[in-house]
Amino acid sequence: MTFTSPLHHNSIKIMLLGSGELGKEVAIEAQRLGIEVIAVDKYPHAPAHLVANRAHVIDMQDRQALLSLIREEQPTFILPEVEALSIEALFDAEAEGFHVIPNAEAVNKTMNRKNIRVFAAETLGIATSPYEFVTTEAELKAAADRIGFPCVIKPVMSSSGHGQSVAKHPGDIPHSWEIAKEARGDASELIIEGFVDFDYEITLLTVRTEEETVFCEPIGHIQKDGDYILSWQPMPMRPAALKKAKEIAKAVTDGLGGRGIFGVEFFIKEDEVYFSELSPRPHDTGMVTLITQSQSEFALHVRAVLGLPLEFTFYGAGASGAYKACSESKEPRIEVPDRAFTAHSYVRIFGKPESHIGRRMAVSLVLDDEIEEAKKRALEIVNQISDF
Ligand code: AMP
User: Fold this and answer.
1) Which residue's alpha carbon is at the smallest distance from atom 8 of ligand 1?
2) Which is the catalytic residue, given 81, 193, 284, 297?
3) Per-residue pLDDT tens for 106-150?
């Protein structure tokens, strides 16, 4: 491959749509290869803005604003890093010859739980929890009776646990309806799913180009209120379950096509594997690869985007813990004890311009021969951090 230097008329350019902590790492990896980085987000001084050649602040859900910026910047590759963007602008850009990663239709399918669920379960015939889509409280009640209790209710357009609830019995349905209604703000649909009483859940990072598909070691994680707090790699799995998960991840990502990394989420019960959902971009639980792999999920994403070989080395067991702010500040200060920084552990600070209670501000990373020890240490470090 022929590389270029940034800020020239012939530069290879990556445009990040979404400039959070994941985008920041992608930007750094792209910079390492001399790629020009254009970072876009809805607020100034977002993490990836800080390490990009140019930073833009626009409403990415505004079709015209997004398309105008793409035309102005002429990126070689457009990398959506968030779901809250105008999908129409991506379709328009693709029709004009811009290269959307992995492709506009894959972004369209995965930004809506209905599209990806129907594609996986009905088009590809993959095992998922039972599900129905509803738009009214009466439909929700009837669907819950058919699916049974407990069941999980989520807006089709939402992430990070927003509007999500578990109904344990019929009396919970009105409350679930209220939670979902508040979060979605419009008349969009809800998905109601049978509750999977899983042993554990994983993210299987799957990286693909036209030439190859590679998998990272499975990542185990713990979610709280729909947001991850601890992830570790490798998640010990029965060989039959891992084999099934890889086959499903390959089938879904081949079905979506294009280049890049995908975070494929599964629920596992003994040898049974249920596909849950997928993000066509680096995954937050995959931040653990910053310490466990010679090429992190971010480096692999950039390699895949450029069509480079996807080989890497797995160093060994590791864990990552998410640090969430405990205070509100316009000049956040994050206090990390010096002892968090050792040969095999460290902290990454995202540099977000403001802290809000519950906002993810940093991540602890630990490498250890023992997976349980890595998890314990990663949590210990997070618990020792404070902000003000
Ligand atoms: P999601 O936003 O769909 O990834 O859901 C967030 C978290 O809620 C998942 O990581 C699971 O821990 C839990 N969850 C979601 N759907 C189900 C389900 N059908 N059965 C059991 N747990 C679920």
Assistant:
1) 226
2) 284
3) 999 999 999 999 999 999 999 999 999 999 999 999 999 999 999
pLDDT digits (tens, 9 = 90+) for 46-69: 999 999 999 999 999 999 999 999
For ligand 1, say whether the CB of 195 is within 6 Å of any of its atoms: yes
- Smallest CA-to-CA distance from 150 within 133, 184, 127, 173 is with 173
Question: What residue's CA is closest to ligand 1, atom 6?
Answer: 226
Distance CA 36, CA 384 (A): 37
CA 196–ligand 1 middle distance (angstroms): 8
Return the ligand 1 atom nearest residue 193 CA: 19
Query: Domains plus CATH for the chain?
Result: 13-100 (3.40.50.20), 130-194 (3.30.1490.20), 200-387 (3.30.470.20)
pTM of the model: 0.96
Contact indicator for 208, 253 with CB cutoff of 8 Å: yes
Give the C-alpha separation, 213 to 256, whole Å.
13
Contact 134, 141 (CB under 8 A): no
